[in-house]
């Protein structure tokens, strides 16, 4: 669903900053009601339970209550890093929104002023926005199964037959070489979580990406979601095992009808079987008959996403500076000039994303400095000419 970029900012005359624990039952009820009225807010990140579960362990977690004439008109869950306003849980929270009634356009300048932040950074904003800044539209990628697994598979196979033919061959090779893997859909145990995190950290080290789990609080965020005693919400994992040994696993965040595929990992020894893709297909095959209708893959451009997904709605990535007055004109201009400077903008965007991940996770000066030094060192290594 396309996002509305309104030029009319809704009236706002007071913002109250509260701790997550100070959200009342009335707040939670209003939050849930507004979310249900907005079909673009599909996915577990927009659920008030997400904010309540992670709030205790995200450093500096807060919620802004927005008022007009004494009445609450919106909520925005956030954190502040080095004077920058970020959605709560960044960089782990792939999507975020100001929770309000349909059509409400937030006054971001007033929000920045109330939180004493110099700018707002976001990488998956869903919903109306009226702002001045460099803002890029992104597409959510999702496997949509409202008509069931078979209908989804037939459609995707028709459009991407070579991809699904290769996946089918890998599935047959797994059966031939191992007798198949045991699949389970289960709550995330400490064993599964530690196994995935260890593999992800090794992957970050090899790729030169910042280790988002080095700071500690990001793991605790996942632990809190795993410990939720709610049958309809929380962390789950699709798991492949062979003779009791973990082969592949993917942590997902789920609500009643949607699944956000979050942290996949697999034993490198099984690389040639593309077990990560085979596992994702097994998750969809298992859950679609249980009533799950949306499997969100995020916004990244990985090759495997396109054959398995369709456009799941637009979101925005960018940065909005604090300014005396805001309007949508500059936002539209920023989007329009991107094609003419594509390579430069892509390089700038890549660098900004790397810095934002560091800023989001590292809350100490020592951690921040160490991460920036490592990033600079990796950058210099890439610039060195290859040896003859």
Radius of gyration: 21 Å
Helix content: 25-40%
Distance between the termini: 52 Å
- Record field, number of beta strands: 13
Largest sheet: 13 strands, mixed
Helix and strand content put the structural class at alpha+beta
- Strand content range: 25-35%
General shape: globular
What can you tell me about this protein's structure?
The radius of gyration is 21 Å and the shape is globular. With 388 residues, it is of the alpha+beta class. Strands 1, 2, 3, 4, 5, 6, 7, 8, 9, 10, 11, 12 and 13 form a 13-stranded mixed beta sheet that branches. Strand 3 and strand 4 form a beta hairpin. The protein folds into 2 domains: 14-138 and 314-381; 141-312, 3-Layer(aba) Sandwich (Aminopeptidase). It is built from 12 helices and 13 strands.
Give a brief description:
Helix 4 (149-159) crosses helix 5 (161-178). The model is unreliable at 326-340 (pLDDT under 50).
């Amino acid at each position: 669903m396309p996002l509305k970029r309104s030029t009319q900012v809704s009236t706002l005359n007071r913002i109250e900053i509260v701790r997550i624990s100070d959200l009342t039952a009335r707040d939670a009820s209003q939050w849930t009601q507004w979310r249900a009225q907005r079909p673009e807010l599909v996915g577990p990140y927009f659920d008030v339970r997400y904010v309540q579960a992670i709030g205790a362990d995200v450093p500096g977690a807060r919620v802004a209550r927005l008022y007009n004439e004494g009445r609450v008109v919106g909520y925005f869950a956030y954190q502040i890093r080095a004077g920058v306003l970020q959605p709560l849980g960044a960089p782990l929270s792939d999507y975020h929104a100001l929770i309000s009634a349909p059509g409400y356009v937030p006054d971001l300048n007033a929000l920045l002023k109330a939180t004493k932040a110099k700018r707002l950074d976001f990488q998956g904003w869903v919903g109306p926005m009226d702002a001045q800044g460099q803002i890029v539209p992104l597409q959510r990628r999702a496997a949509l199964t409202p008509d069931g697994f078979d209908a989804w598979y037939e459609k995707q196979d028709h459009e991407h037959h070579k991809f699904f033919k290769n996946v089918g061959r890998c599935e047959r090779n797994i059966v031939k070489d191992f007798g198949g893997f045991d699949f389970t859909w289960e709550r995330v145990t400490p064993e599964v979580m530690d196994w995935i995190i260890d593999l992800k950290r090794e992957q970050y080290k090899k790729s030169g990406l910042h280790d988002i789990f080095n700071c500690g609080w990001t793991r605790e965020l996942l632990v809190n979601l795993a410990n939720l005693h709610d049958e309809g919400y929380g962390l789950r994992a699709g798991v492949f095992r062979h003779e009791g040994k973990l082969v592949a696993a993917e942590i997902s965040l789920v609500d009643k009808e949607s699944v956000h595929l979050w942290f996949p990992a697999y034993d490198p020894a099984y690389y040639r079987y593309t077990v990560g893709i085979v596992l994702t297909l097994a998750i969809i095959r298992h859950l679609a008959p249980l009533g799950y209708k949306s499997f969100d893959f995020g916004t990244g451009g990985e090759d495997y996403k396109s054959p398995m997904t369709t456009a799941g709605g637009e979101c925005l990535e960018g940065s909005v500076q604090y300014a005396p007055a805001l309007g949508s004109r500059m936002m539209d201009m920023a989007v329009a000039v991107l094609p003419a400077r594509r390579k430069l903008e892509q390089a700038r965007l890549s660098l900004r994303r790397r810095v934002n991940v560091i800023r989001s996770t590292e809350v100490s000066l020592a951690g921040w400095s160490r991460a920036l030094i490592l990033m600079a060192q990796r950058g210099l290594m890439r610039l060195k000419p290859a040896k003859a």
